Automatic annotation (TrEMBL):
<dbReference type="GO" id="GO:0003700">
    <property type="term" value="F:DNA-binding transcription factor activity"/>
</dbReference>
<protein>
    <submittedName>
        <fullName>DNA-binding transcriptional ArsR family regulator</fullName>
    </submittedName>
</protein>
<dbReference type="InterPro" id="IPR011991">
    <property type="entry name" value="ArsR-like_HTH"/>
</dbReference>
<dbReference type="InterPro" id="IPR051011">
    <property type="entry name" value="Metal_resp_trans_reg"/>
</dbReference>
<dbReference type="GO" id="GO:0003677">
    <property type="term" value="F:DNA binding"/>
</dbReference>
<dbReference type="InterPro" id="IPR036390">
    <property type="entry name" value="WH_DNA-bd_sf"/>
</dbReference>
<dbReference type="InterPro" id="IPR036388">
    <property type="entry name" value="WH-like_DNA-bd_sf"/>
</dbReference>
<feature type="domain" description="HTH arsR-type">
    <location>
        <begin position="14"/>
        <end position="107"/>
    </location>
</feature>
<keyword id="KW-0238">DNA-binding</keyword>
<keyword id="KW-0805">Transcription regulation</keyword>
<keyword id="KW-0804">Transcription</keyword>
<dbReference type="Pfam" id="PF01022">
    <property type="entry name" value="HTH_5"/>
</dbReference>
<dbReference type="InterPro" id="IPR001845">
    <property type="entry name" value="HTH_ArsR_DNA-bd_dom"/>
</dbReference>
C-alpha cells in the first residue's frame, strides 16, 4: 500500500493530463448504472449479485463492468468459476459518495453547503 498526502496537486499547478484523466473518470460516472455499480463495489461482488441490485440486464451489467475495468476503476479476480469485482480506489469511492450526496441535495431541494473553513476557489 502506498501512503501519500491527499493534496494531489492542490498546492502545485495542475497539469492538462490531470484534467484529462479527471474528465475521463467523470465521464464514466455520468451513467446511472455505472455510478450504482461503483457504489455497490465497495465490497467484492459477482455479476449475478450486482445484476440483482441494479435495474439492468446481466449483459448490460457485464458490459458496464468491462468498461470500468478497462478504465482501471474496478479490479476483477477469479473465485472458482465466478469473477468478482471491486472498486480500485478509496478516492473513487469518495467521489461516488460525494456525487450522490450532491444529487441528494438537488433532488430533495436541500440547499448546498460549504465548509466555512474551506479556502475560497480561485
Amino acid at each position: 500500500m502506498h501512503a501519500h498526502d491527499n493534496s494531489y496537486g492542490r498546492n502545485a499547478e495542475e497539469s492538462p493530463e490531470q484534467y484529462g484523466a479527471a474528465a475521463e473518470v467523470l465521464g464514466l460516472l455520468a451513467d446511472p448504472t455505472r455510478l450504482r455499480l461503483l457504489q455497490l463495489l465497495n465490497s467484492e461482488q459477482d455479476v449475478t449479485t450486482l445484476t440483482s441490485q441494479v435495474e439492468a440486464s446481466r449483459s448490460s451489467v457485464s458490459q458496464h463492468l468491462g468498461r470500468l475495468r478497462l478504465a482501471g476503476l474496478v479490479q476483477v479476480r477469479r473465485e472458482g468459476r465466478r469473477m468478482v469485482y471491486r472498486i480500485t480506489s478509496d478516492h473513487l469511492a469518495g467521489l461516488v459518495e460525494e456525487a450522490l450526496g450532491y444529487a441528494y441535495h438537488a433532488v430533495h431541494g436541500i440547499p448546498h453547503h460549504r465548509n466555512p473553513e474551506a479556502p475560497p476557489s480561485e
